[in-house]
């Protein structure tokens, strides 16, 4: 038993601020057209083939969904993070969450906040038409979550250009992206670094000589691939630096709330997709004559997942509204990512249990949802780190 692939229930949308209701409704409506062009079945087909979701990207452009989040004075549609969140949630609800969308919108946020007028014109405005795809280069093999231990080094030359040498890992969409937003040390290896010293944030052209990609074999049922990216003395111009030299880490952190909220939307949308499949199945599966959905052992996990996802969704849109109003949305954004990913994973687990053995048949498209939502407990920031943040920053407990 499957749901309709283009079934996006606008009436079931979460409560949002009245000023945002029309925006969110229009996004959900536009995604119906996207899903008609690129349904979940094609998403899974591209994933199995190891290919890309180019048709999905083109459909986003055609629906003007990439314009959302870019200020109107730059030719965008406005809508801020609330609009971007709605796009990601609606796409995930129909099972076609594009990771490239999340990466590009997050990266252009850093440029909007800290880039020059020329950089904004060259790299942000170009995303509206889909001509610019950006991946994110932060994680390194040895450093892991501790980005302060990053070894990728950007040395400034006498003419103002930089030479970049190092390695990044788990870089999603590196083969599709024309640029990478790269965090690199500008301090010498023996110099101290911190949030406001020793790093640069660079927008690097992926076609430059000295960049090598090595694909990682990661099975997660999505049409984006992950890579190790090697930089062998790559020369980039001075204008590749975003913002101020030394403040690259600070520039990156100032945009992470946007990433947290978008990831929450990604997770919650998929959680809703999994839940709807389980509910539809539980209504008709009746091996003993009565639909299994009548049994509390089946009902309760699904009901709990729904309640927890709805609660997380309220925090998510509240965080987006706070961010858009210029407030410090750190607490809400981190809670949204934590609660959203956990609730969505619980929804998938409940859906698997409801479907029983059939959940593990590829064509049922149930267990196929699990790897992606399990990954979101770890990346782009693990939930343990978010709990540390809440413990220290919200509750005021001692720092570990």
UniProtKB/TrEMBL annotation:
CDD domains: ACAD (cd00567). Pfam families: Acyl-CoA_dh_1, Acyl-CoA_dh_M, Acyl-CoA_dh_N. Residues 46-130 form the Acyl-CoA dehydrogenase/oxidase N-terminal domain. Keywords: FAD, Flavoprotein, Oxidoreductase. One of its GO terms (molecular function) is flavin adenine dinucleotide binding. One of its GO terms (biological process) is fatty acid beta-oxidation using acyl-CoA dehydrogenase. Its cofactor is FAD. Residues 135-234 form the Acyl-CoA oxidase/dehydrogenase middle domain. InterPro entries: Acyl-CoA_dehydrogenase, Acyl-CoA_Oxase/DH_mid-dom, Acyl-CoA_Oxase/DH_mid-dom_sf, AcylCo_DH-like_C, AcylCo_DH/oxidase_C, AcylCoA_DH/ox_N, AcylCoA_DH/ox_N_sf, AcylCoA_DH/oxidase_NM_dom_sf. Residues 248-395 form the Acyl-CoA dehydrogenase/oxidase C-terminal domain. GO terms for cellular component: cytoplasm. Belongs to the acyl-CoA dehydrogenase family. This is Acyl-CoA dehydrogenase. It comes from Nocardioides immobilis.
